[in-house]
Design a protein that fits this description.
With 178 residues, the protein is an alpha+beta fold.
């Protein structure tokens, strides 16, 4: 989950296990709840995130807990309270986020610019493998492609990003290679 959040350009800050929020349960008893992650977005919105397997959401009473917190605490702690399950935290999203974060550490302005210039010569969607091969960047090609995906220059097909994935120039074609 944390890698997914760190790979998201809309996320400004991630706080794991923030201080607990106090609320009263349906019987009036004072309780404390600690969310898994408090996310602050670039927009300033704060999102309280609880991660739970889908099969445990109802038995845990988490929805009722979050409803009580929202009603009693409101936006003093977070603007939004949500539960993330395996439906949102997919293997595909996790793998792609790990790849993006790894390739951010391999950022090379020169290689990204070369790949962007080469990509402008192609029409439509192309598989990453042949794009890498024909770019002339050899082992530096994949990080450059991933950084272009990360920056919005390329759109990528669904699924785990690998050599068989298709990319195409983005409609918004972010100017990160200049």
């Amino acid at each position: 989950m944390l890698q997914i959040l760190h790979a998201d350009h809309g996320v400004k800050e991630v706080c794991e296990q923030p201080p607990p929020v106090h609320y009263r349960d349906s019987k009036g008893k004072l309780r404390a709840h600690t969310c898994d992650v408090l996310v602050t977005m670039v927009s300033g919105e704060r999102i309280s995130v609880d991660v739970k397997p889908e099969s445990r959401v109802i038995p845990s009473g988490l929805r009722k807990t979050l409803q009580a917190i929202k009603a009693q605490v409101g936006d003093a702690f977070a603007d939004t309270y949500c539960i993330c399950t395996e439906a949102e935290i997919t293997r595909e999203l996790a793998e792609n986020s790990r790849l993006i974060l790894r390739c951010r550490n391999m950022w090379s302005r020169e290689n990204v610019a070369k790949m962007a210039r080469f990509a402008e010569t192609i029409n439509g969607a192309v598989q990453i493998g042949p794009l890498m091969y024909h770019s002339g960047l050899e082992r530096k090609a994949m990080p450059a492609i991933i950084n272009l995906i990360d920056g919005g220059y390329f759109e990528v097909s669904q699924g785990i990003i690998d050599h068989s994935s298709y990319v195409r120039l983005s409609a918004r074609n972010a100017n990160i290679a200049a």
